[in-house]
Automatic annotation (TrEMBL):
It catalyses: (1R,2R)-1,2-dihydrobenzene-1,2-diol + NADP(+) = catechol + NADPH + H(+); D-xylose + NADP(+) = D-xylono-1,5-lactone + NADPH + H(+). It comes from the Eukaryota. Residues 136-250 form the GFO/IDH/MocA-like oxidoreductase domain. This is Trans-1,2-dihydrobenzene-1,2-diol dehydrogenase. It is an enzyme of class 1 (oxidoreductase). The lineage of its organism: Eukaryota, Metazoa, Ecdysozoa, Arthropoda, Hexapoda. GO terms for molecular function: D-xylose 1-dehydrogenase (NADP+) activity; nucleotide binding; trans-1,2-dihydrobenzene-1,2-diol dehydrogenase activity. Belongs to the Gfo/Idh/MocA family. Its EC number is 1.1.1.179, 1.3.1.20. Keywords: Oxidoreductase. The keyword Translocase does not apply. InterPro entries: Gfo/Idh/MocA-like_OxRdtase_N, Gfo/Idh/MocA_domain, GFO_IDH_MocA-like_dom, NAD(P)-bd_dom_sf.
Amino acid sequence: MSSGKLIRWGIASAGKISEDFVIALSTLPASDHQVVAVAARAQERAAEFAKKHGIPTALGSYEELAKSKDVDVVYIGVLNPQHYEVSLLMLNHGKHVLCEKPLAMNKKQVEGILAAAKANKRFFMEAVWSRFFPSYQHVRQLIDTGALGEIKDVQVNFGFPLANVDRLQKRELGGGVVYDLGIYTIQVSQWAFQEPPQKIESTGHTNAEGIDDDVSTTLTYSGGRTARMRISSREKLDNKAIIKGTKGQVTLIDFWTPNKLIDIDGKEKEWLPPKGKHATNYANSEAMRYEAEAVRQSILAGELENKTVSYADSLLFAQIEDTIRKQIGVLNKYDEQ
Ligand SMILES: NC(=O)C1=CN([C@@H]2O[C@H](COP(=O)(O)OP(=O)(O)OC[C@H]3O[C@@H](n4cnc5c(N)ncnc54)[C@H](OP(=O)(O)O)[C@@H]3O)[C@@H](O)[C@H]2O)C=CC1
Ligand SMILES: O=C1OC[C@@H](O)[C@@H](O)[C@@H]1O
């Protein structure tokens, strides 16, 4: 660590979400967060990215980033099938890690990553950024104080027309709507119920390559309480999460990136993150600043995990994803290893 409160980020991959994460960091105090290096599979791509964002070091491999003495924590924005190996690479070189969702291709890989984090005594978190929004913290409070009563039902839909996005549609790129969007609907249900589901029932459709592109799932919790979710890369859905309790309900608008909610009193409540210097590739990515700051706080406190997205959370997300994929018949080579 270079100073009392500064954390120095390294960025693994020069892709879209990596760029958005750097833009989000630029909205935080430079005395707290600095991006010191970016690495890509090709040096030129890293150099171009570094030039645009004023990053001092551009590296032509993730290995060089892992070995860098200047980096405290690595943000991993590679494609899904590479999350496992790049996480291990960084942890085994003593780096703290924030890795994009979905954490890995199955629960077994998640277990391997978390074992490496523990063995190396390094902070590790799956980048489930939604949970760090002020709106999610507000919902947490409504649930924990009993203001919503007993949570009975979650209804959540998440869909966009993403048929042309290769990383969602192609098996070798880790495609599948369960991996890409399902993680969000699962995590919001778990945010509400705070216990593992007792039953999981899914039906789904696949693309021509046999990759899931439209899936409906019901998670049943104790006492017959349910979360009903639909995810789709075929069409736009309402993208809301409605959490209903015995005393009231709350609706997260654009629930994966919710600046806004409809509160228990029926009124809208809004929190807006500041804009960065550049436009982002994905909607509202500046709000990744909330998770970035949470990572800093955890690292400064010497924590290996953050309670908002804990190791146990990531294991359960992966287990639910695995079950849904199995139920709709979308398994892959990682499931056989
Ligand atoms: N939190 C959020 O809101 C979002 C999260 N994501 C997650 O981020 C990750 C990356 O998504 P996104 O940035 O959109 O992806 P990109 O298509 O921008 O690719 C990201 C990086 O992956 C590497 N890559 C690209 N193609 C290949 C390939 N064929 N084989 C191996 N590596 C390849 C490249 O790394 P290099 O630069 O080193 O060449 C590329 O820059 C995914 O896991 C996704 O789930 C994505 C969007 C939003
Ligand atoms: O995490 C994500 O957020 C919303 C969608 O754009 C999706 O494809 C992406 O991976």
